[in-house]
Design goal:
mainly alpha, 14 helices, 0% strand, globular
């Protein structure tokens, strides 16, 4: 148990240092006084508007989550779902991916809904959002192929060259993974009856059944049109969040809505990186997008990345802390599911 905790801490520190390293690379060779001057002259009203738009997108996400939960024949309050969602975002700021478990945990306790069923709905969300993300990624390539061509070649060309130069290494890697799956399957077939007697097997079985039920919610959903509308609204306001942010700085104010889609889509690669709060990774990716694709000056590019990341982080902390406080304050409120 102690060894597992130490390994978890070391893993966290590794990704934190990785993020800080990317942050250093983002600011390297820049005059910090010029960057600070750029940020201090930003129009912060546009940043606050961007954050307001972000809250709207989170409200739509909470409403969409309610639809999925309702498909499981459980009742929820929009306010409770929203506060649980923001509590999860608060946790994600410090520990990536943990927030998904936390938001399910607090909502499960508050509204008396099985945790595994809630986590299944979150997986349903992520699967659908991944599909939308893929569509946006394709649109970015189609509408801005000429701009992206040089960028992708510069950043990913060396990687693909190395992959094809080491095809045997890649084959060995994937072959090892397949072999491990085969060994695990054969072990399961041989020890199946013995494993079924173990308590952990029943826990895993119940958990997987709950996940399956959650994933099926989209298929069983009666209000599919409303679900699609909420999904559209979530991503529209995500894009609007970036687009509105462009007006903070003079050098980025000319960028259009399509550029907002590009920065959101490619910049999300920095947010989903396993570094705490996306720190460093987001700055590095967004700066590269703005400088290499749209030829924005490095000072303005890193200023935009820094202000938007700081604003989103502060939003998650403040609204997340408020949401968690509200869940505690309303603790005595009767659960929606007896």
């Amino acid at each position: 148990m102690l060894a597992k905790r130490i390994l978890t801490i070391l893993q966290y520190l590794f990704f934190l240092l990785l993020g800080l390293g990317l942050l250093w690379l983002s600011f390297r060779k820049l005059n910090l006084q010029d960057v600070f001057h750029e940020m201090s002259n930003a129009h912060f009203g546009w940043l606050f508007l961007s954050l307001f738009v972000t809250i709207i997108s989170h409200l739509f996400r909470a409403a969409r989550w309610n639809l999925l939960i309702g498909t499981l024949n459980y009742k929820t309050r929009l306010s409770t779902t929203f506060f649980s969602l923001m509590t999860g975002y608060l946790v994600n700021t410090g520990v990536p991916r943990l927030g998904e478990f936390v938001r399910c945990g607090v909502l499960s306790k508050k509204e008396k809904i099985p945790f595994n069923a809630l986590f299944g709905t979150v997986i349903s969300e992520r699967i659908f959002d991944l599909f939308v993300f893929a569509i946006l990624f394709v649109l970015v390539i189609v509408f801005q192929l000429s701009l992206l061509n040089q960028f992708l070649h510069e950043f990913f060309g060396p990687f693909f060259h190395d992959v094809f130069d080491n095809i045997w290494t890649i084959s060995l890697f994937f072959g090892s993974i397949i072999l491990l799956f085969v060994i695990a399957f054969l072990y399961w077939k041989r020890k199946k009856e013995h494993l079924k007697e173990k308590a952990f097997f029943h826990k895993i079985h119940d958990f997987m059944v709950g996940l399956a039920e959650g994933i099926k919610t989209i298929k069983r959903m009666k209000k599919k049109g409303l679900f699609l509308f909420y999904t559209f609204a979530i991503w529209f306001f995500y894009i609007l969040m970036i687009y509105v942010g462009f007006f903070m700085l003079k050098e980025t104010s000319h960028l259009n809505f399509i550029a907002g889609i590009t920065v959101l889509t490619l910049g999300s690669l920095g947010i989903i990186a396993p570094v705490p709060g996306g720190i460093g990774a987001y700055h590095f990716v967004v700066k590269a997008i703005l400088t290499e694709i749209y030829h924005i000056g490095p000072d303005s590019a890193i200023s935009f990345a820094t202000l938007t990341h700081a604003g989103q982080t502060l939003l998650n902390i403040v609204v997340g802390a408020f949401g968690y406080t509200m869940l505690i304050v309303t603790k005595k409120m009767k659960p929606s599911n007896g």
